[in-house]
Design brief:
By secondary structure, this protein is of the alpha+beta class. The protein has two domains: about 210 residues, Beta Polymerase, domain 2 (2-Layer Sandwich), CATH 3.30.460; about 110 residues, no CATH class. The chain has 15 helices and seven strands. Strands 1-2-7-4-3 form a five-stranded mixed β-sheet. Helix 1 packs across helix 2, helix 7 packs antiparallel against helix 8 and helix 9 packs parallel to helix 11. The mean pLDDT is about 90.
């Protein structure tokens, strides 16, 4: 294909490439939400993951630099999506989502771990790269997406992204000679980056292990809430729930979720109270409300009032006290 024909192809296909990139991003985002939930998925990505179309003039210039004889097949970055996560372990999660999607074929074009093993002194910007093409021709909003269309997906950590933004144009694509001292500085920064990522990952694992009983109880309470109340009234605010559980951490024990489940079953009127109030009170739309009822029944009312961590919800707690016929002395 000559350059004029390729330019015409790009001009005619811009909308299709844009639509294909949006489709790929949508599918990956849905996969992350399915695995993590809306709130954790939003925290996973540190930079908005938006498809980016390669400018036509930039694509034409690349043909000259690379000497492509079949640019439609050889130029894999006409549209791309970049995912920037917090830690390296999250790269694997996104990669698994990419690999498992049935509507496309994902080919690994660059594995940063393999690159490091092959060349410890690598100066390339580090990312996990995929070339993603549809398994069949199909239409989106009457725009034809064909199997020869490639969307490049990059997945990197925030540290890798910072490294890439600083180093890529100066070292990977130098505009002039790169002195040895500059290469040495880059090598040291890469080593520091990898060490920092390892430290962050081990720190997050320590936090996850320490808070596992709390987090598991929250998940169990969510299941109980869905069973007793229904998911349509659930408006989870995990920070509110964790604030309560952290304040009363000494109450957490093995089998507590089962104990609370039995407690709610025995006092069946509690579920009716929650249903009535969930539409107007955010606390009653939280899974933690069942823990609150249970805690009000087992903790001295004066102590609970003194320790209650959420003053904005105090009127709701007074309602719970009233439901259980318990109240502080002051």
């Amino acid at each position: 294909m000559d350059t004029d024909a390729f330019r015409k192809h790009l001009e005619e296909s811009q909308s299709a490439f844009d639509m294909w990139g949006k489709y790929v991003a949508k599918k990956i985002n849905e996969g992350v939400i399915q695995r993590l939930g809306d709130e954790d998925a939003a925290m996973c990505f540190k930079i908005p993951s938006l498809p980016r179309l390669k400018k036509i003039d930039s694509a034409m210039g690349k043909i000259g630099r690379k000497g492509y004889d079949n640019p439609i097949a050889q130029m894999t970055d006409l549209v791309g999506v970049r995912y920037v996560v917090l830690l390296s372990e999250q790269i694997e999660m996104v990669c698994n989502i990419v690999k498992s999607e049935p509507t496309w074929v994902a080919k690994i074009s660059k594995d940063y771990q393999d690159e490091i093993e092959k060349n410890p002194k690598i100066f390339d910007y580090q990312s996990q790269h995929f070339e993603i093409r549809p398994t069949r021709n199909f239409e989106i909003d009457e725009i034809l997406i064909t199997t020869d269309m490639c969307c490049e997906v990059q997945i990197r950590t925030l540290l890798q992204h910072a490294y890439a933004e600083l180093v890529h144009d100066s070292i990977y694509k130098p505009v002039g000679p790169v002195p040895y001292k500059a290469e040495r500085q880059v090598a040291k920064s890469m080593a520091l980056m990898e060490t920092t990522d390892e430290l962050f990952s081990s720190t997050m694992k320590l936090l996850a292990d320490t808070n596992q009983p709390r987090n598991q109880l929250y998940e169990d309470l969510t299941i109980i809430y869905r069973e007793k109340i229904g998911g349509h009234l659930l408006r989870p605010d995990i920070k509110t729930s964790y604030a309560i559980l952290d304040e009363f951490r000494e109450l957490l024990k093995d089998g507590l979720s089962a104990e609370i489940g039995i407690y709610i079953e025995d006092k069946h009127y509690i579920s009716n109270k929650v249903v009535t109030r969930a539409k107007t009170s955010l606390l009653f739309a939280q899974p933690i409300i069942f823990f609150v009822y249970w805690a009000v029944d087992v903790i001295d009312p004066d102590e609970l009032k003194r320790r209650w961590p959420l003053p904005g919800y105090w009127r709701d707690i007074e309602v719970v006290f009233s439901d259980l016929d318990r109240r502080p002395s002051y």
